[in-house]
Amino acid sequence: MSGGSGGFRCNRKLTLAMSGGFIILVIALTVGLCVGLSGSNDVTENEETTSFSIDHQANTFLLNGKPFRYVAGSFHYFRALPEAWRNRLRTMRAAGLNALDTYVEWSLHNPHDGEYNWEGIADLVKFLEIAQEEDFYIVLRPGPYICAERDNGGLPHWLFTKYPDIKVRTNDPRYIAEVSKWYAELMPRLKHLLIGNGGKIIMVQVENEYAAYYACDHDYLNWLRDETDKYVENKALLFTVDIPNERMHCGKIDNVFATTDFGIDRIHEIDQIWKYLRSVQPTGPLVNSEFYPGWLTHWQEMNQRRDPQEVASALKTILSYNASVNLYMFFGGTNFGFTAGANYDLDGSIGYTADITSYDYDAVMDEAGGVTKKYELVKQVIGEVLELPNIVLNPAKRLAYGKVELTPTTELLSAEGRAALAKGAPVKSTKPKSFEEMDQYSGLLLYETPLPSLDLDPTLLQVEDLRDRAHVFVDQQLVGTLSREARIYALPLSKGWGSTLQLLVENQGRINYDRANDTKGIFGKVTLQLHNGGALPLEDWTTTAYPLEAITIENWRQKLPENAALDSSIAKQRLLRSGPILYTGSFQVSEVGDTYLNPAGWGKGVAYVNGFNLGRYWPLGGPQITLYVPNELLKVGSNSLVLIEYQRCNKTTNGPELPAVQFDAVAQLDGESSEAQK
Predict the structure, then answer these.
(1) How far apart are the first and last CA of the chain?
(2) Catalytic residue among 207, 227, 290, 549
(3) What pLDDT does residue 41 have?
(4) What is the mean pLDDT of residues 355-370?
(5) Which of 105, 207, 209, 301 is flagged as catalytic?
(6) Which domain holds residue 575?
């Protein structure tokens, strides 16, 4: 979502996060105008058409000619199952919110060039229509870049397959052409939802925290403004969101309403923040489009928490300026599948860090859509400025289904594993192919090359520009792990280990902020150290794709012979020395409820329930231990579970018992020793 101080949300200011210091939070709420992009207060009322405009003398919005302000909450439709949308929205409305803020994720709807998806979790129109039914005005943020802690900031990976050197978010003709095609698919679907056409979309964002981007390309911004309004047709307000600092002018667009974003860490300088906003927009209502009641979390750092009372107090301060505000996030949800992004610390002290699967965000509602202490305090504050609706909530039960044993059934790198789970034929090339060159969204790539006679014993293997993590094998025996996060790009190989070098590379999530071209795979040289101090480059690679898409895993599971299991000698291994293993199991459900998959004791991998990819787990890295399992995925009777484990299982003895996981009733997002308390 944000850049700048909001970008501090996306860019994270990782050093502060890991030192336990406060992170600069910045929010900018989006604002709407139906009549005229200039925000003129000359409003012509029409009994049949709802009007939304700006009074620049009174510095307020006008809804049907009357002063209006909104208190909104962010909820991204792609972070909850469609069957849960109405429940989440109703819980938000019960807190007094009168507006909904949501992004549109280009990559979800356009996963491959020329291919579009508008069904299931991608049914954006249905989501917005439900929001209207639940009595929300809507702040729509179509990007096309959204950040949002999503893979690639929501930009499709295939842009970099099609145009390897494309300059996204600039006036690059190739980028403009692709955005134009995307908007031609997206925008007409939303026309009936615009407030000027009788719907409830009051505002549509142009770009996203652009002032934090290096380009400062106003030709591009002006083009995107015009391209957006070609479909909006002055039937909603166009707006921008930018971090409050001296660069705000880079994000300001002529005839587009400007807002800002900030959180509790900057509430003490709120007057200065409003001055920054007034420097680019002297009149009009004040808007904080992203007020952060929580924060995002990366693997291998402490979970980010924000004090509920401080959040409520800061919200009250913002509202005291008669400002409109959007709480980002009000409901965070989950980065299902491989959708979680990553960040990169620009000062180099931390480097690349991947976002966890949960997007709980320490938000006002928890990951399962439940109310929290923060919810009750925020609701009290909202009730001081807006009427609270009388809504009775019916939260889903949270149930523990207990222990589930898992049978090791297939080695990913075996002949059987390759035949069932690899996509297409292996590709031969001089240099390793990237994920984008293989037109692969995420998962794994296996790089293999003949290993020459080693000059030294041991010999240093060096892999330049690895993105992101590589398990290194010689003749399918693990010899070590390389990591972009840990900045480990070399390890020793000994003579006599074997004849084939294998690098199994995991995409841990593309950077979602600042760098919008985080292509994946191996991009630098792969070399062996020579006796004379030189380096021997390794070439002639074979690349095998393992996208690990849910449909592929489910088809494989359904075709497994009954009682399928690996050889007992492999099954008894705790450390997976010969590569990832697929484990299968089932569990019985007599009553359906929300639950949490607990893989404590396992290493790192991906989990699937009833053919749905829950996301990445990594209890060894933490702080997230459990994966949220929505009740909507489960059914009374038998339910299936698949783990693709990369490193180790939790089997502790050589006895006949199988490794196992737990299904718990309580989330663990703060490490194994503590449960999430909000």
Answers:
(1) 23
(2) 290
(3) 34
(4) 98
(5) 209
(6) 402-410+549-664
